[in-house]
Amino acid sequence: MYASHRVSAVHHGLSCSYQEALHMEQDFITCMEKGSLHDAEVLYLTSRAMFESCIGSGITDLSQPDFLRCFSRGWVYTRVMNLAVEMLQKLRDYEGAVELLERLLEQKVYCSGKRGYWLDRLALNLDQHLKDTGKALDIISRGLIDDHLRTGHLLALVERARRICQSPSHTEFKHRLPEFPLPYEQEPKEIEINGTVIPDRVTGRKTVFVSSDRSASAEDGDFILSSVEELALEHYCQVEGWERGIHAEGSSFSALFCLLLWDVIFTSGVPNVFRTQYQAAPLDFATDHFYSSRKALIDERLAIISRAASEDLRSMIALTWNSHYGQQCIGMNWDLFPSQLNDAQDLVVCIGGTLAACICERLAKDYRHCRGGVPDLTLWSPKTHRCKFVEVKGPGDRLSQKQVLWLDYLTTSKADAEVCKVKPVGGRRL
Fold first, then answer.
1. pLDDT tens-digit map of 264-300
2. The predicted structure's pLDDT at residue 62
3. What is the dihedral of CA 126, 131, 134, 136, to 10 degrees?
4. Which of 88, 101, 285, 309 has the most CB atoms lying inside 10 A of its own CB?
5. Using an 8 Å Cβ cutoff, are 107 and 127 in contact?
6. pLDDT beneath 70: ranges in the chain
7. How far apart are CA 190 and CA 148, in angstroms?
8. What is the rounded CA–CA span in Å between residue 307 and residue 325?
9. Which 3 state secondary structure label does DSSP give 5?
10. How many CB atoms lie within 10 A of CB 59?
């Protein structure tokens, strides 16, 4: 299916040190899971010394791309430091947490994908625990231009800054609100439907609804329980008349991405990304390197998809399906579509080449941070060549940052996307 192409070594002769780092990480995780915070603190002090040593000699690792650098001991000790932030916060050592977060942000060798989380934690600790709100806003302002800041983290930081600036207790920072514009163009469209809720549910569990599909009842008087997403799917199919629909969240987009770019994903022209014959994706699949190292191939394929007529799109899906059915690829679930190939073809035709190319482009450029937040429901109508994407929210649920950004991206790409809020009726609202 692909050819292994090893050019660079991974551990640079330090495989034992790498294994020791992994053992330290596992010991730290075990202490945290058991609530043994003081034992974790001892491990933290040892790991911190190793982390500092790795930062001091990180020039060797810096010569490697991220997808190989993650197999270095420095990367593992940085992961331990990331876990240690939570430990320090639980010990109420907020000064220590802030110092560690600042140190993590000073280095740019390891775990660059965590920088958004570190910035958010740093701003939170400065504002809420150390009461240095001005510095928290300065950290956010500088962080917004960080090259490694992505999607949900960007919105999380902006929302935190805007809450501070709009807070009645922080009127002295109101003038800074324009520094933090929201990174999306408009609020998502919303609809509301009613759902009969089961009143006596266990606290902490999701709300359970009574299915509106009476035809599914085994006998008169029986009723079918359903999740909030299943209830919404029934509404769209039975009330609004959508012919096909699945509750798949990100699986529908990632499946189309794999089907339309399979040969690009598994191209053998990129060194070091396939190191064994047992990979379900190249090692750089969820990194910036994936797009940058295949830019010409990806851009060419996206242009073809964007211009493709319906029959061409069907042919592209069929070619991959018939050639690779059952083979492993990250993001590909061959059982996702009830009618298999026919459903996949109908869906991509209903989405259309232009929108399909936009979706694939976003995943190609930042798969790691964009695979989450995709709307719950994917609906399509082969008769009318229409599709819709719906994020479903039950009682007390709110949109995550990634969900907000996906809805905005789809809407600005001319897709039909909305939020469906399910209002509980006929039972006690918990």
1. 999 988 999 998 888 999 999 999 999 999 999 999 9
2. 76
3. 20
4. 101
5. no
6. 1-15, 58-60, 199-205, 212-223, 427-430
7. 32
8. 26
9. coil
10. 8
The answer to whether residues 157 and 139 touch, using CB atoms and an 8 Å cutoff, is: no
pLDDT at 307: 97
Strands (E), 98-230: 189-196, 209-210, 225-226
The CA-atom distances, in angstroms, between 421 and each of 213, 332, 339, 418, 424 are: 19, 29, 29, 10, 10
Kind and range of the H or E element at 392? strand 386-393
- Report DSSP letters for 138-162, one per residue: HHHHHHTT-TT--HHHHHHHHHHHH
Hey, what amino acid is at 382?
P
The predicted-structure confidence for 299-311, as pLDDT tens digits, reads as follows 999 999 999 999 9
Amino acid at 186: Q
Q: Indicate the pTM of the whole model.
A: 0.88
CA angle in degrees (0–180, nearest 5) for 406-300-318: 80
Fill in the amino acid letter for 162. Answer: R
Residue 301: closest CA among 252, 259, 255, 346: 259
Sign of CA dihedral 246, 249, 251, 253: positive
Q: Are strands 377-381 and 386-393 parallel, antiparallel or unpaired?
A: antiparallel
CA torsion angle 250 115 266 348 (round to 10): 30
Residue pair 390/375 in contact (Cβ under 8 Å)? The answer is yes
Q: Helices 401-412 & 151-166, crossing angle to 10 degrees?
A: 110
DSSP 245: E
User: Can you read off the two tokens belonging to residue 56?
Assistant: 């001091």
